[in-house]
């Protein structure tokens, strides 16, 4: 059985060389732009940015229980057992609920296209199938982006934090956020400073809707029976009163 | 040469709106969503979702409410307002689906909903419910067509299944009216705390019932002014009472919800969300509750009319606050629709008014009701299913 893979991003090791950015463009055949793209977009799946002298990356987090996959009405997103969250572009109808709902603001839309699709990092699912590691991890000269088994990377991240308590804040971003992700980040400064959401819950966001959605079959049966019951009871009572009225009328006619 | 129709102010307005709408539609389908809308990766849902879908579906909620009152609860005296309500609902849902075709990136794939199922997705559920309920509405509406064509037999068939149809309609409506709110359940970190709540599905459902009733009152007044149809104040005032109860329950839930989540401390912060929230609360909740609670106002034509307008305006503001105002802070961008988004929405609304007035003129919508309301026979005979009764 394949163990789920992950990326460990150690921002303390990132030197901001942009090798991952260009490797990603190449691996995904994304168009080169004149200026370096500042944000994720339909033509750009990762960015390297700097805050307080610290470089960090942004890319799809490849959630264990992806919000995009939960909200998509046509199941265009799929979490593969190997880790990547992949997109089936043939299914997509373009409702953009994935873009609206993603807690990491990752999926991007081809706004300029007439047959627009959603675009985001694939965690190089295709390369992984060929036995290779992700393009960004392969290109990284310092090991700041590191590819491996999720369990092992988690252990490695914990080890680094424990062994260098001054160097890291005690938090592995992506270990528990929204049920855990396949991208794990450790940092020397709080994650809010990178613009990452610090208020994310630890259970998958999809649980919030499933609590309601899972009750629907029951609701349909119960309310169907209930409504028909109301109809039947009132109907019966009206029939009876009708009948009694006519009987009373008959009996009073008899007396006369 | 004489034109076959009279040129009036409203006809000119209608034509201008349509022309703008068509221009915008051409741009939308030739240049794409990016060129025609102010939507972005930061703000992927705008006016078309917020107004055309969230508001459109809610405004059509009168259909299932009145149908349930008449057929399930046997309160047959409401029958005179059944047909205009079913017409509004049916028209409303058709327009919602039509509007969706503009918003979807690849509308020609809308049928994918039928074959690729994701029972975890709220939108999947909404899509199916809207699809099925529109079918139910088409069937509920069909007797009106059959009647005007003089086809007795198919009308009788529909009459035989009207009870299961209505019950299915009520179930489907409660599901998707509330689920439009559930769409936002998955975004606790995005929707502003005034509007994000775990009870948002219930709030959506209640406000839909209230606005459904308000729309029936509003329309009855418009048809009364435009076509001189008799105003059934006896029935409308009762709907006003339903509205009052629904709005009070809504207000109580909202207060409880605010207390439970500790939102009260936020309600005087100087932010645009605060102002728009207060506007919504005053127009949509406080004003109509006060108006409707005063019996003299509720029983007066004008008072009831104003209460319904307040409720509708507050409802629209609520849905737009959720779709736009409440999402802006977390998106980090502000959104205002482009003229093309506005034009297409206006054109769709105008089409609604236009088709409604045509239907009222050429189909037995109100006349039928009036001839029916005079004799008491439909009320006393419980066996009779009124919608299939011929004139």
Give the rounded overall mean pLDDT of chain A: 92
Helix/strand class of chain A:
alpha+beta
Q: In angstroms, what is the radius of gyration of chain A?
A: 28 Å
Principal-axis shape of chain B equals globular
Strand residue percentage of chain A: 5-15%
Oligomer description: heterodimer
Task: Look up the CATH topology of the largest domain in chain A.
Answer: Alpha-Beta Plaits
Count of discrete domains of chain B: 1
Low-confidence stretches of chain B: 370-391
N-to-C terminal Cα separation of chain A, in Å?
A: 93 Å
What does this structure look like?
- Chain A is an alpha+beta fold.
- Chain A has 2 domains: 5-210, Alpha-Beta Plaits, CATH 3.30.70; 215-255.
- Helix content of chain A is 36%, strand content 14%.
- The longest helix of chain A has 40 residues, at 216-255.
- The radius of gyration of chain A is 28 Å and the shape is elongated.
- The mean pLDDT of chain A is 92.
- With 391 residues, chain B is mainly alpha-helical.
- Chain B has one domain (9-388): Formate dehydrogenase/DMSO reductase domain (Formate dehydrogenase/DMSO reductase fold, Up-down Bundle).
- Helices cover 73% and strands 0% of the residues of chain B.
- Chain B has helices spanning 9-31, 33-36, 47-59, 62-72, 82-103, 112-115, 122-149, 152-160, 162-182, 200-227, 233-261, 272-293, 295-298, 301-331, 339-362, 366-373, 377-380.
- In chain B, helix 4 runs antiparallel to helix 9 (162-182).
- The radius of gyration of chain B is 21 Å and the shape is globular.
- Mean pLDDT of chain B is 90; it is low at 370-391.
- Classes of the chains: A alpha+beta (256), B mainly alpha (391).
- At the A-B interface, helix 2, helix 3, strand 6, helix 7 and helix 8 of A face helix 1, helix 2, helix 4, helix 7 and helix 9 of B.
Key descriptive features of the protein:
heterodimer; A: 256 residues; alpha+beta; Alpha-Beta Plaits; 2 domains; three-stranded mixed sheet; 8 helices; 36% helix; B: 391 residues
């Amino acid at each position: 059985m394949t163990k789920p893979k992950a990326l460990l991003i150690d921002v303390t090791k990132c030197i901001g060389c942009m090798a991952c950015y260009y490797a990603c463009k190449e691996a995904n055949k994304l168009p080169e732009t004149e200026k370096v793209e500042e944000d994720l977009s339909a033509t750009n799946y990762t960015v390297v940015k700097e805050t307080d002298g610290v470089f960090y990356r942004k890319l799809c987090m490849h959630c264990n229980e992806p919000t995009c996959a939960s909200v998509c009405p046509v199941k265009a997103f799929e979490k593969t057992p190997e880790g990547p969250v992949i997109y089936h572009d043939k299914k997509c109808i373009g409702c953009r609920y994935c873009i609206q709902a993603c807690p990491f603001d990752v999926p991007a839309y081809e706004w300029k296209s007439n047959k627009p699709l959603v675009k985001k990092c694939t965690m190089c699912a295709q390369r992984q199938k060929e036995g290779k590691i992700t393009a960004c991890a392969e290109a990284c000269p310092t090991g700041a982006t590191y590819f491996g088994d999720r369990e092992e990377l988690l252990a490695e991240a914990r080890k680094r934090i424990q062994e260098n308590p001054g160097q890291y804040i005690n938090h592995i971003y992506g270990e528990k956020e929204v049920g855990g992700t396949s991208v794990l980040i450790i940092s020397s400064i709080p994650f809010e400073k990178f613009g990452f959401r610090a208020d994310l819950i630890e259970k998958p966001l999809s649980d919030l809707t499933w609590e309601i959605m899972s009750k629907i079959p029951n609701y349909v049966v119960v309310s169907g029976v209930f409504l028909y019951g109301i109809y039947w009871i009132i109907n019966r009572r009206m029939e009876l009163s009708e009948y009694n009225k006519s009987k009373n009328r008959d009996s009073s006619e008899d007396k006369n | 040469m004489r034109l076959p129709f009279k040129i009036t102010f409203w006809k000119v307005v209608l034509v201008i709106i349509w022309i703008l709408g068509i221009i915008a539609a051409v741009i939308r389908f030739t240049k794409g969503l990016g060129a025609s809308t102010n939507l972005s990766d930061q703000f992927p849902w705008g006016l078309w979702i917020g107004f055309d879908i969230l508001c459109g579906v809610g405004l059509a909620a009168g259909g299932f409410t009145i149908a349930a009152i008449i057929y399930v609860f046997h309160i047959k005296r409401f029958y005179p307002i059944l047909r205009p309500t079913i017409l509004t609902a049916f028209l409303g849902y058709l327009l919602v689906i039509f509007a969706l075709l503009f918003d979807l990136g690849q509308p020609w794939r809308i049928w994918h909903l039928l074959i690729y199922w994701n029972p975890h997705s709220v939108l999947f559920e909404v899509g199916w419910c809207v699809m099925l309920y529109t079918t139910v509405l088409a069937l509920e509406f069909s007797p009106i067509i059959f009647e005007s064509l003089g086809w007795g037999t198919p009308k009788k068939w529909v009459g035989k299944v009207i009870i299961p149809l209505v019950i299915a309609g009520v179930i489907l409506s409660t599901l998707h009216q509330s689920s439009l709110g559930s769409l936002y359940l998955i975004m606790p970190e995005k929707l502003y705390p005034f509007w994000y709540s775990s009870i948002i599905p219930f709030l959506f459902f209640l406000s839909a019932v209230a606005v459904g009733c308000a729309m029936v009152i509003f329309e009855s007044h418009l048809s009364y002014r435009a076509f001189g149809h008799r105003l059934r104040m006896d029935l409308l005032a009762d709907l006003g009472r339903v509205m009052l109860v629904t709005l009070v329950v809504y207000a109580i839930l909202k207060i409880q919800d605010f207390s439970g989540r500790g939102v009260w401390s936020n309600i005087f912060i100087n932010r645009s969300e605060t102002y728009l929230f207060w506007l919504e609360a005053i127009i949509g909740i406080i004003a109509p509750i006060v108006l409707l609670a005063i019996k003299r106002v509720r029983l007066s034509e004008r008072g009831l009319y104003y209460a319904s307008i307040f409720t509708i305006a507050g409802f629209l503001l609520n849905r737009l606050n959720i779709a736009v105002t409440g999402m802006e802070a977390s998106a980090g961008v502000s959104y205002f629709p482009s003229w093309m988004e506005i034009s297409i929405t206006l054109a769709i609304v105008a089409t609604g008014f236009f088709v409604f007035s045509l239907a009222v003129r050429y189909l037995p919508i109100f006349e039928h009701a009036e001839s029916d309301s005079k004799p008491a026979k439909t009320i006393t005979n419980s066996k009779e299913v009124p919608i299939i009764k011929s004139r």
